Each structure stands twice: as structure tokens, then as C-alpha cells.
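note to self: dont lose this again. the chain is below, predicted strucutre after it. 342 aa total, dont forget to put it in the shared folder this time
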Amino acid sequence: MQSKNTVKIGDYITVFDYTRGDNFSFTLITTENKTVYSTMGYRTKNYAHTELQHGGNGSETISDISPMGKAILGRRIGDTIAITGGDGKICQYKIVAIERIQNEDNCCFQDDDNDYEETFHESESTYVPGEHSIVSKYEIGYQSERLENVTISDIVQRYANHIIIWISGSGPSTSSDRNSSYRCLMEYNGNKKFLEKSIPKVTANQIMLEGIIDAVKCINKPSKICVVCFSELGFKKGFNGKGINSERILKLYHAIKEKRCQLTVCYSMQKKNEIKKYILEANPDKEKREAFLKQQNDAKVERIRKYKQSIYNECLAEVEMILRDCNIADAVIEQIKAIKVE
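---
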């Protein structure tokens, strides 16, 4: 399916029902094409306002002469429509997705699980940020898992039938003007693809979401996706259009839905450095890889040094109290305090 912005006959449309509080989907048909749509397996009913069905699987159709059909034809994503029922009650709906049905024989997706090159490619998402804010996470099979007491190898094995997207990122430092950046590793069936990018200052979570979106754009067929990171990325609020990450989460949602994929997100702060290292080891740029690993090692050495110094300072404070109680000369105490931990 190819996403479009304006509702036309034959489109597969998803709307949010403000009365029911959930999404439902249907195909908009014309009464002139009942025979054609019957051969495609769709039920051809001229739904009245009170007969709207929440199928959500493409099996439901609404005709262009029904109240819903008349109200929605020609409208755009993000538009809100109001329909008055026979009881005089006004119901409101928001258009959250419009998809153009195309012949599956001409679909660009490949079904060969061993065809790695056909699984990753470069493409563009047609989602326009900010056009809608309420979605159903169940439409992309969303699941979330907190990782504990597992290794990188455990994750690879557990999600062997998924495209694993390993993602790390950093926001701008308060002490510098550097941009935010992400590093991403796509892994599938033993094959790997490395991505990285910097953009003007955003938060670490936001830059990681940008990386996941870019990775999803590289997928060329319906797949199960497993994102592995060290943060929950704000998905819980984002699916409800809330939080500072909501716009990017919604953009990711539509990119995944457009590719007809399913999403699992695994996260663990405990694995932060392991995830970063695993991603970097796949970087084809040897100089960047070695520079990052050196930076990581230097940071680890500095953390250990600071920890040792803090322990030494605590011990020194205790020793100083004992020495002063014993009337040891100040000059001697100062000499002892000047000793630095190695």
C-alpha cells in the first residue's frame, strides 16, 4: 500500500472515533464498483451512520453514498469530520491514515527470508510530521521488554527471526556546541548494516528515534523488528500523542505501518556500554571505531580513578581526625593529605 494525503474511492482509511476512543479502518468504495470489490473479498454494504463496523482488518467497506462516505471523500490526514446520526447525536472522527490499495502482484516487498539485500534498501517515508496524533500500537504489534541478566548473544539468539536494530545516541553537551548524533546497527540473519548521523541539538531519546526511523526506511519487506537500546524512548506517552518524543514516535509508527512490519522494543540501562560497543564494532570506518573505543576506555579509566580518589578522601578524613586527636603536628597532617591516589 502507498500512503496518500487525500481520500479517494478505493482508499483504505483509518479514523479515530472520539466517542469509542479507538481506531477503526475500512475501504471506501463506490456503489458502481460492487462487482469489482466483491472479487477482492470485501463485503459491500452501504453502511449507514449507525452501521459503522470496527473491523480494522481491511474486510469492512463503506460506500461513497453513506453519511461517512460523503463526509470523508476528498478530506486529508488530520482532518476531523462530524456526522449526525438518526438520533441527532453528533459523532466526530479524525483521519489518521490514508492508504492506496495496489495490486499485490506488483508489490515491492519480497517474501524470501534469505534475501538480505532485498530486506535492506534506501527509501523515503511518506508520513508528514504533525498531521495526526492518535494511533493504535496494536496495529504494528507493539511489544516492550526490559532486558535483565542477558548477554548480547542471548538477544541475538532470542530475536534471530527479527531484524534487530541496535541504537545508541547522545544529546548535546551543556559544555559544548556539538550536535546530537546516533549510531545504529541493523542485523539480520548474520548480515549487518551500519548507520550514523548528526543533526542539530535534540535530546538523546529523540536522536535515537531518528536513527530507528532511518533504519526502518531501509527495510524492503514485511518483517518483525526488534529495537535494542538503553532507554524506553517515551513510547508509552508517544502513542497517545503526549511527551516531547511524540512527534517522532508517531513518525516511526507510520513508517513501520507503511512497511507492514511489527515492532518489539527491548531496553536496558545496564547494557548501555555493551550496546554502544557492539554497535561501534560494526562501524566500517576503522579510525572512527578505534577512536571511539579509546574514548570509552579512557572514560572507564577516569571513572575508576575518581572512585578510588573518593574512597581515599573518605579514609583520609578519618585518619585526619585520629591524628588531630593524637596532637600530631599540622605540617605532618598536611603532608599526608597531599598524597594522591594512583
